[in-house]
């Protein structure tokens, strides 16, 4: 039986969500995408789920992406999960905290080739 890699994408902008989905689907059919458009939904769908990668928008309507990532990382199933921040911010206000929470980042507007490279870099062996 084929094992699917699981990616959680937390993004409130519908156009960005569509783009991220399309890029990931083009990488491999062995990837299952879980979507959340808010911090609350991300937390809700992550309680009993394990992901191979998390792509997290920083500016969300209800919670900051850094806060959400910190909370998710308290769950044991996220101990080995890499987190990629997706942000339009040219500079992160507190880079030290940012680097403690996220393993990598991608700038917005999202470059399809850069996103492909990041996803392959983090979970390429699983797909």
Residue-averaged pLDDT: 90
DSSP E strands, number: 5
Residue fraction in strands: 15-25%
Uncertain regions spanning at least 5 consecutive residues? none
Helix content: 25-40%
At CATH level 3, the topology is Rossmann fold
Q: In total, how many domains does the architecture comprise?
A: 1
Structure description:
- Helix content is 37%, strand content 20%.
- The protein has a five-stranded parallel β-sheet, with helices on both faces.
- It starts with a strand and ends with a helix.
- The model has no long low-confidence stretch (mean pLDDT 90).
- The protein has 127 residues and is an alpha/beta fold.
- The protein has a single domain, classed as Rossmann fold (3-Layer(aba) Sandwich).
- The protein is globular.
- It has helices spanning 14-27, 39-44, 65-72, 95-101, 112-123, and strands at residues 5-10, 31-36, 53-57, 83-87, 104-107.
- α1 links the parallel β1 and β2.
Concise overview:
This protein has 127 residues and is α/β, with parallel strands linked by helices.
Keywords:
127 residues
Q: What is the fold's blueprint, element by element?
A:
Blueprint: E1 5-10, H1 14-27, E2 31-36, H2 39-44, E3 53-57, H3 65-72, E4 83-87, H4 95-101, E5 104-107, H5 112-123
């Amino acid at each position: 039986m084929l094992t699917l890699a699981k990616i959680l994408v937390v993004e409130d902008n519908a156009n960005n969500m569509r783009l991220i989905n399309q890029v990931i689907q083009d990488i491999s059919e062995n990837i299952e995408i879980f979507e959340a458009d808010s911090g609350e939904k991300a937390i809700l769908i992550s309680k009993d789920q394990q992901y191979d990668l998390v792509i997290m928008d920083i500016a969300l309507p209800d919670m900051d992406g850094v806060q959400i990532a910190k909370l998710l990382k308290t769950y044991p199933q996220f101990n080995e999960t890499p987190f990629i921040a997706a942000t339009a911010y040219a500079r992160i206000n507190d880079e030290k905290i940012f680097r403690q929470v996220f393993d990598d980042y991608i700038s917005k507007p999202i470059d399809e080739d850069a996103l492909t490279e990041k996803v392959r870099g983090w979970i390429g062996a699983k797909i």
